[in-house]
Write a structure and sequence with these properties.
The complex is a heterodimer of chains A (about 110) and B (about 120). Chain A is mainly beta. Chain A is built from no helices and eleven strands. In chain A, strands 2, 4, 5, 6, 9, 10 and 11 form a seven-stranded mixed β-sheet that branches. Chain B is mainly β and about 120 residues long. Helices cover about 0% and strands about 55% of the residues of chain B. In chain B, the strands form two sheets. In chain B, strands 2, 4, 5, 6, 9, 10 and 11 form a seven-stranded mixed β-sheet that branches. In chain B, strand 7 and strand 8 form a beta hairpin. The relative contact order of chain B is 0.31. Classes of the chains: A mainly beta (about 110), B mainly beta (about 120). Chains A and B meet through strand 5 and strand 10 of A and strand 5 and strand 10 of B.
């Protein structure tokens, strides 16, 4: 199985400041079609996870443009340009290159 | 708007079978490219992909569940189900159903873009 490793696991952020989460995979997520199959999900407190970004950098419908994703191969990053209070929760990366899909441990973003 | 809703018993006896059903609305379960999925979240821990099923019954599952797992689809009710046999306390978790889109060899892809609210299942006697 592909192992997904996130850092940091805890991320206190001041509102209005940027935030960055790293996700590394134990194998390259680059498909022969040229896409890197890495997605990001956010689980807000008391809610189900929801999709933020897919194929490394494509924002899901309704996701604010302060969220951006980048990376290739085994190293990926989720960035929030200016954190807002509503961004608190646990962020998970997940690979979908093949089955079994596996998730990172999660990064808990909290407001300072 | 797509909506998924899990249903099933919240308490299952050890060694018995855990069965959950997901009712889908807002999209036909036979729509091409959609894989109907189960993901679980163990208490205080991360997410684990269990399996998904295509409308024709083709199932793709996590090998960690070995031969304990089966899935079914009821197209007449727009539902799909998970059956996990020989459960233990380690299977206690919140179980989510989710919609996964993958088509045209991955050139059309969205990921798990709709999730149910989750069903808490406790395995205990």
């Amino acid at each position: 199985d592909i192992v997904m490793t996130q850092s940091p696991l805890s991320l206190p952020v001041t509102p209005g400041e940027p935030a960055s989460i790293s996700c590394r995979s134990s194998q390259s997520l680059l498909h022969s079609n040229g896409y890197n199959y890495l997605d990001w999900y956010l689980q807000k407190p008391g809610q189900s996870p929801h999709l933020l970004i897919y194929l490394t950098s494509i924002r899901a419908s309704g996701v604010p443009d302060r969220f951006s994703g980048s990376g290739s191969g085994t190293d990926f990053t989720l960035k929030i340009s200016r954190v807002e209070a509503e961004d608190v929760g646990i962020y998970f990366c997940m690979h979908s290159l093949r089955t079994p899909h596996t998730f990172g441990q999660g990064t808990k973003l909290e407001i300072k | 708007q797509v909506h998924l809703q899990e249903s099933g018993p919240g308490l299952v006896q050890p060694s018995q079978t855990l069965s959950l059903t997901c009712t889908v609305s807002g999209v036909s379960i036979i729509s091409g490219g959609y894989y109907w999925s189960w993901i679980r979240q163990l208490p205080g821990k991360g997410l684990e992909w269990i399996a998904y099923v295509y409308y024709n019954g083709d199932t793709y599952s996590n090998p960690s569940f070995k031969n304990r797992l089966s899935m079914s689809v009821d197209t007449s009710k727009n539902q799909f189900s998970l059956h996990l046999k020989f459960v233990t306390a380690a299977d206690s978790a919140v179980y989510y159903c989710a919609q996964y889109y993958y088509n045209n060899n991955g050139l059309e892809y969205i990921g798990f873009d709709n999730w149910g609210q989750g069903a808490l299942v406790t395995v205990s006697s």
